[in-house]
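Support request, please re-run this one:
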Amino acid sequence: MNVSDAVAARRSIRDFLTDPVDDELLRDLLERAARAPSGGNVQPWRIYVLNGSRMTDFLDFLSTQPDIEPSEYDVYPANLWEPHRTARFELGEQMYGLLDIPREDKAGRLQQFARNARFFDAPAAFFITIDRRFNEPQWSDLGMFLQTFMLLAVEAGLDTCAQEYWSSRHGAVMEFVGAPEEEMLFCGMAIGYRNTEAPVNDLVAERLPLNTWATWV
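Re-run finished. Output below.
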């Protein structure tokens, strides 16, 4: 698979099969994803993997913890502006439309949102953290690691969903994985094989036209 095909094929999958993911495959993907660029080669990412029985243990532990807590960072700015506000709104409408959950069905939408807490039934996952002493440039390095991993996963026949949802459960996550206090949780990554019969996995997010964000100077 070439890079262009992997980029086009990658999706944020929100309904996974329970088919297991081999630990050695995950190890290989993570080692190769570490070739992602980072400023000064500082490699600021720290990864905590859940798979097999440890995924079950984590989900059992999570059920005993508070549902939501304040995130340690703002996932979106307050009063998100255009065209970003509309892009985010339209994505939600597309997704809930595929799920046949109308806007007035608030309970249905909350139930779908709650599936984040089970990694959308993915059998494997990881959390990515960063030392609090790092700054914004190192946070961008995390994004490059995540993108590299996701494209390698596509090549390997796996699917993923990066989940900033976990920033609202950071206390439970960090306690379970045993991360030190100087680390901050950025996000989680659900990993597995997509359920091809789930309508939500047909979602293809639209992209803004080139001329709205690129300027030839």
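Residues 3-69+117-198 form a domain with the NADH Oxidase fold (CATH 3.40.109.10). The longest helix spans residues 136-155.
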